[in-house]
Structure formats: structure tokens, C-alpha cells
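Students often ask why inverse folding is considered easier than folding. One informal answer: many sequences map to the same fold, so there is more than one right answer. In these notes we will look at a single instance of the problem. The structure comes first.
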């Protein structure tokens, strides 16, 4: 069996890759240039989790978690070079956060159910974000980089929680769906120029339904798409 590497070894390896005598590609990377890598690696990890759920084989998941870890350490090493923070700062901050947000484990608060634990988490998170200069508003805190369907559902859910009383919908989600669907049908028949806009209205109402009913629209659409691929290409399963 070869050498067993620990976390310190791995951080040193990344620092070597970034050093003067390291890899030209790794030395050239920045926080911005690595953004597509993180997106791709996150998607590959999700795929690996799906493979594990379907087959029980965790080998690919182990590999993809390593790739995510590489991204975390790479960004931290670049930040250290820039004089911003170190990987130890990252580990220390997330450790403090986990302790702070779990007072029912590390403190005196109580939480008997997952819902109560989540309520503790959200309340503490809300207090933590007060006064943060980069958070312009509650809805703008939701990352634009999320997939559009997931972000829409989050915006609808959070806006309803924050502003529902003062900006209440004048119709139920089911009434909205019926009205939007009728408009979509009419556009398909006689208003082709308006079809895309009516489709968007219908899609937004579907997101509203997902938000209100707790439907994981992004995950469900991904699963349905995968099933369609398997249906048309079963020989590649």
C-alpha cells in the first residue's frame, strides 16, 4: 500500500502546485477562473451521489468529494497568497459556525425534532447576517449562480415569508395556474409572438406551486430528464 496522505499533506501538495516550480496551469488559476471548475465538480458529485443511491457503489462519490476538496483548498491557498485568509481560517470559521448554530448540541437550547433544529439554525443565521455589507437585501442574498428553477422557487418561498402579508397574492396558486394556462393556450392558437412570454408566466406559477407545496422542482426535473435519457437509450444503462 502506498503512502497515506492526511489533510496537511494535501494542503502542502496544492501549495507545491502553486509554487514557482509547480504546474503552469495551477499557477495561472484565480478565484474567477476556477468558478467553472467548481460548478462542474459540484454537478459531478451530485451525479456520483445518484450513482451510489442506484448501485450502492461509493467509489465515484469518494473521488468526486476529493475533487470538491481540491477546489476548496485551491481557493484557500490562492487567498493566502493574496493575504486574505488561510485554510486554517476556513476550517476554524466553519467549526465555530457549526458550534454556534447547534446550541441544542453544544449549548443549552433544546430541539427534539429536525424542524426545531432547523428553526434554531435559521434564527441564528439571520442574526449572523445582520450588518454584513455584501448582503444588499434578503432576496438578493439568494445566489444568482443557482440554477434558474431552483432560484425562482427560493425567491418565491422567501418573498412569501418576508413580504406575504403586505404583498399578498390576489389569487390562489391554483387560480393562477388556470388563468396562466388559458392564456398559454390562447397564445398557442392566435398569438404566436406572445407564446414565449405566456410560457414564462405559466412556468412562474409552477414555481410558485412548488414553493408553496415544498416540491423539490429542480431535483425532480433532473430525475425526470434522466429517466427520459434511460428510456431512449436503455442499452447504455
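Output (designed amino acids):
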Amino acid at each position: 500500500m502506498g503512502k497515506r496522505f492526511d489533510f496537511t499533506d494535501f494542503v502542502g501538495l496544492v501549495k507545491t502546485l502553486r509554487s514557482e516550480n509547480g504546474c503552469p496551469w495551477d499557477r495561472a488559476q484565480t478565484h474567477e477562473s476556477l468558478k467553472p471548475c467548481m460548478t462542474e465538480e459540484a454537478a459531478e458529485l451530485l451525479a456520483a451521489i445518484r450513482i451510489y443511491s442506484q448501485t450502492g457503489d461509493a467509489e465515484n462519490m469518494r473521488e468526486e468529494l476529493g475533487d470538491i476538496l481540491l477546489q476548496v483548498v485551491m481557493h484557500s491557498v490562492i487567498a493566502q497568497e493574496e493575504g486574505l485568509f488561510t485554510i486554517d481560517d476556513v476550517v476554524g470559521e466553519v467549526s465555530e459556525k457549526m458550534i454556534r448554530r447547534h446550541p441544542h448540541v453544544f449549548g443549552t437550547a433544546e430541539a427534539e425534532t429536525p424542524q426545531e433544529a432547523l428553526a434554531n439554525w435559521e434564527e441564528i443565521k439571520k442574526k449572523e447576517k445582520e450588518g454584513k455589507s455584501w448582503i444588499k437585501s434578503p432576496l438578493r442574498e439568494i445566489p444568482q449562480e443557482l440554477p434558474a428553477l431552483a432560484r425562482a422557487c427560493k425567491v418565491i418561498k422567501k418573498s412569501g415569508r418576508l413580504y406575504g402579508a403586505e404583498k399578498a397574492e390576489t389569487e390562489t396558486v391554483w387560480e393562477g395556474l388556470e388563468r396562466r394556462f388559458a392564456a398559454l393556450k390562447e397564445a398557442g392558437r392566435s398569438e404566436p409572438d406572445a407564446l414565449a412570454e405566456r410560457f414564462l408566466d405559466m412556468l412562474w406559477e409552477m414555481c410558485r406551486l412548488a414553493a408553496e407545496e415544498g416540491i423539490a422542482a429542480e431535483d425532480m426535473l433532473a430525475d425526470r430528464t434522466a429517466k427520459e435519457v434511460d428510456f431512449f437509450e436503455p442499452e447504455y444503462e
